[in-house]
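Quick one, probably user error.
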C-alpha cells in the first residue's frame, strides 16, 4: 500500500528528461547499454535529479579506474566524457547544479552513484533498506565510498512523495532498489524501472544474474502489473533496444 503522508514535493511532474551518462558494453552477449539518469521538473519549480552515472574520477583515466574497481571483469566503458556528467546533462535542460532541489538514488551501484556527494543543497532520497547497508554496494566486493553526511530522506515502503510522483520498492537487484511511477500531464503515466528491470529479457531469463532472483522476479511482476493497470509507458534501466530510440535531453516527456 502506498504511504500518502510524505509530502516531500509540492508540485506535479511537468517535464521528464532522460540524461545520457555514457555507453557501456557488457561482456556477456556483448550487449551495449546506455547509462541513464533522469531529471524531473515539477510545476512548482522543483528539480529532482535521479541518479548520477559513474563517479567523476572515471573521467581522469577510464582504464585505470575500471581496473582498480574490477569493472573490467564485467564490461567496458565505450563512451564517457565531460558531456556525460550530471552538470553537463542538466545544462541541456537549462538547469544549473544549484537548481536541484532533491537527489534520488535508486540504488548504490557504480553506474548510479556518481552524484552522491554533489548537490549538497538537495536532500538525498533513497530507500531505508539501501541506506541501512554499511556502505553503498558500488561493484562486486569493492566498497570505496561511504554514505555522505548530508540530509537524507529514507522511505520504508511505497510512497507518494508528491502529487503524481510515487516511489516503489522493488528489491532483488539490490536489497533497496527502487522504481518510480510518474503521472505526466501529456504523456500520461511513466514507469521508471531503474535496474529492477534493466531490460525486458531479464523477465524471461528469470533474473538469473541477480543476487536475489526470486525477489527480483516478484518485484518485476509487481511493476509490470502496475504498468498494465495504469497503461504506463515503461522506461527500462539499461535496455539495449530501447536506449537508442529514447528522446534525451534537451528533449523531454511532458
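Nope, works fine. Designed sequence:
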Amino acid at each position: 500500500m502506498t504511504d500518502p503522508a510524505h509530502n516531500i514535493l509540492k508540485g506535479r511532474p511537468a517535464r521528464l528528461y532522460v540524461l545520457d551518462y555514457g555507453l557501456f558494453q557488457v561482456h556477456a552477449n556483448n550487449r551495449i547499454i546506455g547509462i541513464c539518469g533522469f531529471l524531473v521538473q515539477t510545476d512548482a519549480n522543483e528539480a529532482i535529479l535521479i541518479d548520477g552515472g559513474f563517479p567523476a574520477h572515471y573521467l581522469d583515466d577510464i582504464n585505470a579506474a575500471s581496473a582498480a574497481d574490477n569493472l573490467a571483469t564485467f564490461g567496458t566503458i565505450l563512451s564517457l566524457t565531460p558531456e556525460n556528467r550530471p552538470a553537463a546533462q542538466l545544462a541541456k535542460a537549462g538547469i544549473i547544479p544549484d537548481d536541484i532541489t532533491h537527489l534520488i538514488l535508486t540504488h548504490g551501484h557504480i553506474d548510479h552513484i556518481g552524484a552522491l556527494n554533489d548537490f549538497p543543497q538537495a536532500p538525498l532520497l533513497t530507500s531505508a533498506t539501501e541506506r541501512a547497508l554499511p556502505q553503498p554496494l558500488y561493484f562486486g566486493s569493492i566498497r570505496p565510498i561511504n554514505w555522505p553526511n548530508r540530509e537524507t530522506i529514507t522511505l520504508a515502503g511505497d510512497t507518494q512523495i508528491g502529487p503524481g510522483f510515487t516511489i516503489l520498492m522493488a528489491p532483488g537487484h539490490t536489497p533497496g532498489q527502487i522504481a518510480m511511477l510518474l503521472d505526466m500531464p501529456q504523456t500520461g503515466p511513466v514507469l521508471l524501472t531503474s535496474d529492477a528491470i534493466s531490460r525486458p529479457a531479464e523477465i524471461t531469463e528469470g533474473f538469473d544474474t541477480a543476487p536475489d532472483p526470486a525477489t527480483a522476479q516478484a518485484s518485476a511482476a509487481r511493476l509490470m502489473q502496475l504498468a498494465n493497470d495504469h497503461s504506463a509507458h515503461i522506461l527500462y534501466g539499461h535496455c539495449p533496444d530501447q536506449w537508442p530510440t529514447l528522446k534525451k535531453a534537451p528533449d523531454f516527456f511532458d
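The chain has one domain: 13-245.
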